[in-house]
Amino acid sequence: MQKTALITGGGQGIGRALALRFAQDGYAVSLVDRDKEAGLEVIRHIRQYGGNAMFMCIDVADEEAVGRWMQLTHEDMGRVDVLINNAGIMANGSMLELPVSEFDRVIAVNLRGTFVCSQQAARIMKSLGKGSIINIASTRALMSEPDTEAYSASKGGILSLTHAMAVSLGGYGIRVNAISPGWIETADWQYSPRAKKPEHSERDMLQHPVGRVGVPYDIADACLFLASDQTGFITGQNLVIDGGMTVKMIYEE
Ligand code: NDP
């Protein structure tokens, strides 16, 4: 039976690249996104090339809706092999002024949403005796710019949740890992009427030891690797994918 990958926030950006890459690799793909048009565009594209894809427009912070997604995917596609918790949001604004409700919303989507989706997917994976959960964190879990408390805290929480779930679920054959992307350019991976050509200065590129900004396939290819049986001995880890940006020292002159 065809392997199935479940992807949150699969309509745009990194999630769109994840959906296309896993479909190209032969997976059936089940996506959710809160942007309906974006999600439908992705599954139309996958089906046009003969792939098997389904989409539901839900909010990953809604536990009941996540339950319906898991159940429908299991019924329609027969199995749940891989879950990628990719949907994420930021809150903008000064730390001193940020409404606490906005802090709560970021935690509800990024951290609680990751737990809810993982819990429900793991119940199905347990019956198969196998599975791979990949949580998309961020280099902002490890370092910060001003006024990013909610986002950074949610991503730091995802790293802790990753090693905790890896320990809890290891006995069921389920591996749990995180990927922390650095700067990944997604302007050209949005719903097509909103997509834009990316523009980067030389300075943008040179702050990366590899000499360029990241692209969504940098993350999607690493997810394919972590989903594969080749990585059966890797669990509870955080893979930083940032072109070396976080290991580069910065000296201001
Ligand atoms: P995008 O905003 O380009 O795409 C995210 C998609 O997820 C959007 O379609 C968005 O819908 C959807 N979404 C947001 N919230 C929810 C929700 N509650 N339920 C369902 N769908 C939702 O994001 P990126 O591709 O840039 O980021 C993907 C992940 O990677 C995020 O977790 C982000 O934090 C992480 N990341 C990204 C980096 C980057 O440089 N791009 C760097 C480090 C980490 P809508 O447009 O309506 O909000």
N/C terminus separation: 59 Å
Count of helices?
A: 7
**Roughly how many Å is the radius of gyration?**
18 Å
Measured as a percent range, the helix fraction is 40-55%
Catalogue the unreliable spans: none
For the largest beta-sheet, the strand count, sense and barrel status come to: 7 strands, parallel
Sketch the topology as an H/E string, one letter per element: EHEHEHEHEHEHHE
Main β-sheet, spatial strand arrangement: 3-2-1-4-5-6-7
Output mean pLDDT: 97
Overall description:
- GO terms for molecular function: glucose 1-dehydrogenase [NAD(P)+] activity.
- Belongs to the short-chain dehydrogenases/reductases (SDR) family.
- It comes from Paenibacillus aurantius.
- This is Glucose 1-dehydrogenase.
- With 253 residues, the chain is an alpha/beta fold.
- It has one domain (4-247): Rossmann fold (3-Layer(aba) Sandwich).
- It is 42% helix and 15% strand.
- It is built from 7 helices and 7 strands; from the N terminus they run βαβαβαβαβαβααβ.
- It has helices at 13-24, 36-48, 63-77, 100-128, 149-169, 202-206, 216-227, and strands at 4-8, 28-33, 53-57, 82-85, 131-136, 174-181, 238-241.
- It starts with a strand and ends in a 12-residue tail after the last strand.
- The structure holds NADPH dihydro-nicotinamide-adenine-dinucleotide phosphate (NDP).
- Residues 8-9, 11-15, 32-35, 38, 59-61, 86-89, 109, 136, 138, 181, 183-184, 186 line the site of NADPH dihydro-nicotinamide-adenine-dinucleotide phosphate (NDP).
